[in-house]
Write a structure and sequence with these properties.
- It is a single chain.
- About 12% of the residues have low confidence.
- The chain is elongated, with a radius of gyration of 25 Å.
- The chain is α+β, with helices and mostly antiparallel strands.
- Helices cover 39% and strands 9% of the residues.
């Protein structure tokens, strides 16, 4: 899981092997003739969910893998040291091991967080978090790997896209690395190893397991803080049925520091160690589908996907000697996106921009909504013409609504004319409300400046 408050970046209803997804509610089966020709018939049947079986139990068998040693040989003497070396060769910055025992206290704290409603619209998080034994019967150890995406990147001033999302999709990268580590376990132990691979796709409290495995401690920002590594890393877990010596936990090192709590642009921290996702920019720009609360838009700034602000000020990311980004997570090239380009993104351009990255988590409409907010916060009059065009042409009400807000933020007679002309023909009530609010803002500002509030004649 990425260290950027990406709560549930991958839905755990997806099979960990990536073979199938839970069918959409509007899914219609193919006619028999077409179904016989479809390659989908070769895939496992999607599990059914009923009151007597949890989704976890239904998905677990397809997610379990078995690794066999290539030859019969005695286990090496220092398995942990050899695994550390293997993890490093695979690109991991750190490997920790925890005993696969249940953690009821952590589960209770998570349930209390859910009960307070801090999860927002991420309803998949309402399913109970489970222990390793429920994901892999006979689980003995949990191996946690941390892959750096570069503390030097999160130290930069605010950018439009969170650092972890600049490169390839970490889900695919880490699954391949975990699978390779599973084979290494079988080779080093000289026996069959059954394993479950988890990369933000299982109902597992990943950061808690990172803490138990000695990767780091949970900071006040709720991120895992690893001394000597910082916070800029993604996590992957390999649950195995073989017992290994556990790593030592890392002591809490936040002390009196509250930099992360104080810097949050939208005030998302209820208190130290408690995040209200409904106010978090990462949640708002990635997970939240609808209209963003009016009082939170200014705090989003020019961000369109995620936020690194709490990481930027963390003292543990300040050292210049921290590990660089893992080569596997290095983008071929990445330039700051053009906000106007995102606002007018075609469907094909959208697919190209998100392909092979974690950015695919956000829909085209969400990206355009986010771009409208960013353009409004940037406040350039030169952007008004494209906003006016989008207000009249966008097929997405959520985009038109936030474009109306952006026009109200930038102001000017052209913006006033466009809003006034659109309100009578706008079919969506939410967009109408946004236009009305923007026009009231015009009236208020103009009244204070002693200017006319009527639009110009067309």
């Amino acid at each position: 899981m990425p260290q950027a408050h990406r709560l549930g970046d991958g839905r755990w209803t997806n099979c960990a092997l990536g073979l199938f997804q839970r069918p959409r509610e509007d899914h219609k089966p193919l006619p028999p003739a077409q179904r016989r020709k479809s390659h989908w018939r070769h895939l496992p049947k999607a599990p059914t969910v009923n009151s007597s079986h949890s989704v976890t139990e239904s998905f677990a068998p397809e997610a379990i893998e078995t690794f066999l040693p290539s030859s019969a040989k005695a286990p090496v003497q220092n398995v942990v040291l050899e695994l550390q070396r293997a993890a490093k060769q695979l690109g991991a910055a750190r490997l920790g091991i925890a005993e696969a025992s249940d953690d009821s206290q952590a589960s209770e704290r998570f349930a209390a967080w859910i009960e307070r409603g801090y999860f927002g619209e991420m309803n998949y998080l309402k399913s109970p978090r489970v222990g390793p034994e429920q994901l892999l019967p006979g689980a003995k150890s949990v191996l946690v790997l941390a892959f750096s995406y570069g503390a030097e990147l999160v130290r930069r001033p605010a950018r439009s896209v969170a650092a972890y999302a600049e490169g390839p999709d970490y889900h695919h990268v880490l699954k391949l690395r975990l699978r390779a580590l599973g084979q290494q376990c079988a080779e080093l132990l000289g026996t069959r190893v059954r394993a479950r691979l988890c990369v933000d796709t299982a109902p597992l409290l990943e950061r808690r397991w990172a803490e138990r495995a000695g990767i780091g401690f949970t900071g006040k920002s709720t991120l895992t803080v690893a001394p000597g590594l910082g916070t800029a890393f993604v996590l992957g877990e390999l649950i195995i049925d073989q017992a290994l010596p556990a790593s030592r936990p890392v002591r809490d090192g936040c002390g009196e520091c509250t930099a992360c709590l104080n810097v949050c642009p939208t005030g998302a921290f209820v208190d130290a160690y408690t995040l209200d996702a409904r106010r978090c920019i990462a949640y708002l720009t990635i997970e939240h589908k609808g209209s963003i609360a009016y009082d939170l838009r200014a705090g989003i700034g020019e961000r369109v996907f995620g936020c690194d602000e709490c990481q930027r000020v963390c003292p543990y990311n300040a050292s210049r000697k921290l590990p660089k980004r893992s080569l596997d997570l290095e983008p071929e090239s990445f330039d700051e996106p053009d906000l106007v380009g995102l606002l007018t993104l075609s469907s094909s351009a959208y697919r190209k921009w998100v392909q092979g990255t974690a950015r695919r988590r956000t829909s085209r409409a969400q990206l355009q909504r986010n771009a409208a907010i960013a353009i409004g916060n940037r406040g350039r009059e030169a952007d008004v013409p494209v906003l006016c065009t989008t207000l009249n042409r966008s097929a997405y009400p959520v985009v038109r609504a936030h474009v109306a807000w952006a026009l109200g933020q930038i102001g000017g007679l052209a913006a006033l004319d466009a809003l006034s002309a659109r309100i009578s023909s706008e079919p969506d009530q939410t967009v109408q409300s946004e236009i009305t609010r923007a026009l009231r803002r015009f009236a208020s500002l103009n009244a204070n400046q002693g200017l006319a509030t009527e639009p110009t004649a067309s």
